[in-house]
Amino acid sequence: MAPAHSFFVVDDDQDIVNILKKVLEMEGHQAFGYTSSLPVMEEILRKKPDCILLDMLMPELDGLTLLKQIRNHPDLQTLKVVIVSGKAYEVDRKRAYDCGADGYITKPVNMQSFPDTIRRVMADRIQLSYWGVHGTMPVPGPLTVKYGGNTSCVSMEFPRGGFFIFDAGTGIKVLSNHIMANSISLVGAKLFISHPHWDHINGLPFFVPLYLQGNEIEILGPAHGDTTMRDLISGQMDGAYFPVNIKEFSAMVSFRDLREGEIKIDGIRVKSMLLNHPGNCLGYRVEYRERVICYITDNELYPAGNPLYNAHYLNQLSGFIKHADVLITDCTYTDEEYEGKSGWGHSSITPVVELAHRSRVKSLHLFHHDPDHSDDDIDRILETAQSILHDRKSGTRCIAPREAQHFQI
Question: What value does the CA radius of gyration of the chain take, rounded to a whole number of Å?
């Protein structure tokens, strides 16, 4: 059970104060309400709350001014501040984070997701979720009930409100259903594409938030020569392949071409590295407050003894994923299967486990399973990986995530 905290709810709307106080108290917290921001600073220093839910558009003293006062006070550096505002614009969200906010919730407040959002802010955890774990093609049916049959899609929700999605295989339809059922707003969301092979983009046209006004979604990924990410996405939705094109998107959708390098989004550092796979394929390293999650798919690790074995590339990749809290990586084949599939752009179990152990990864998540692999096959691959790590006396833990499984990092 999550620990109880003390909260200040500061909003000039008494109804909002009453509702948020009631929800927090139902969660076992202590809550105090204020409809004026003027006495709040003095009350903060006197009562020492753990978190403040603060309206941006307060009369007398606006929320951002109060936030700056809090952040400039030496005794309040650990105090959590969450802006609760009717302003859903990305520019206002960015201003709040630049001033030191720990979270941003838009009105009307979604009471279904509100308690979980507050828990994540207070725990300062990333929610890592899996929506599709197979590769190449979806494989629904009785043999894939345990792990799920959808193709690549992973999401990360950050305490400060950031929402990252990695790849848009058929699993993104499961994510879409989750977002719609929980009325999640995607303002400032980022969709990172590893590469434009079909199993990583063919679910995108079925991602409902793209068709809803008010959402702001940026799609990022590697260009292929002079073919941009926008061209790649719009091409698969051309009338010859799909009846709805990107002109039907009602959300504010933008595109960004990535190469190897680094970008920073609301204090989250995202590094990218070209992987060993046909065409341009990027792996991603996400760094947030000393936590690291690496998304590395699709990628071929040539085993030692293979004529194409590349020690330099292996060293580069090992450095890229070094000390990751979670490594999500391509483990498509058994070692025996790989012998007939070398050069197909995917890895087998032993080189993947050796890489994770060598790089001192804390948790290895097996991903991008072969479409011929049933739940039982994945179980056996997982057992093999765990056995290798046990023999190495490794500190790396290995699991095989399931579709719709969530982790707090």
Answer: 23
Q: How many CA atoms lie within 13 A of 402 on its CB side?
A: 10
Structural domains of the chain ordered from first start: 6-123 (3.40.50.2300), 127-408 (3.60.15.10)
In tens, the pLDDT along 63-116 reads: 999 999 999 999 998 999 999 999 888 788 888 988 999 988 989 998 888 998
d(CA 302, CA 348): 9
Q: Model-level pTM? A: 0.88
Contact 245, 127 (CB under 8 A): no
26 φ/ψ sector (left φ>0, alpha ψ -120 to 50, else beta): alpha
Q: How far is CA 291 from CA 2, 102, 269, in A?
A: 21, 16, 11
Write phi, then psi, for 84 (nearest 5 degrees). -120, 110
Q: Report CA dihedral (190, 195, 199, 200) to the nearest 10 degrees.
A: -10
Q: What residue type is assigned to position 64 of the chain?
A: L
- How does pLDDT run across 193-209, given as a tens digit for each residue? 999 999 999 999 999 99
Phi/psi at 383 (5° precision): -60, -40
Using alpha carbons, list the distances in angstroms from residue 308 to 199, 329, 390.
26, 20, 28
